[in-house]
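Example 3.2
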Amino acid sequence: MGKQSSKTYTSANTVYGNTTTSNPYAVATTNNGGTSAKFQEGTALDSVYKFVNNNINSLLDEYLNPTLDSTTNQAKLNAFTKTLNNTTLNNLENNIINPLSNRNMVRSSQATDLYKNLSNQNTNSLSSYIDELLSESQNNTAQVMNNLLASYMQGYNVISDMQNQSLQTSSGNASTSGYQSTKSKSINASDISSMVGSFFKALL
């Protein structure tokens, strides 16, 4: 007759509790399928997240290629040009043309030269201002991008914290289910003889 040999096998599954964790900016849920998190709709971090994703390419292009066509730059340029023209014209008339005319000391050709010089000065001043305006615009765009990306990363940290909190809470509520099974094997006389033969061979 043969003997019986048995071995017990154990299998266990961890089941996470369904958990929802939230704060004013984000909400996270965890179940046995995993953890997910998202921003609360309409909050500041949600708005920053959407704005950055939708506009970062155009902002980057604006930074690399500053232009005078923007509404802000056009307004600044127009204001500077108007002030420059008014100021230089008043200075020319009040400080040069009128005093000389009153003394009959200026000819039309001289006046033409004065206006020409004034025009050249204005052109140079305007060119310098445009260079400064484009540089300022580029710096302003860079600052806007830095501020937006800092807020964007703050949102990422909030989402990450929510996921961790939800997972930890769910792990604390987890349960374990499993089962045990036993498998048996018969040992007959030939198996015993073979094992004994192998034993003595090992001794020789």
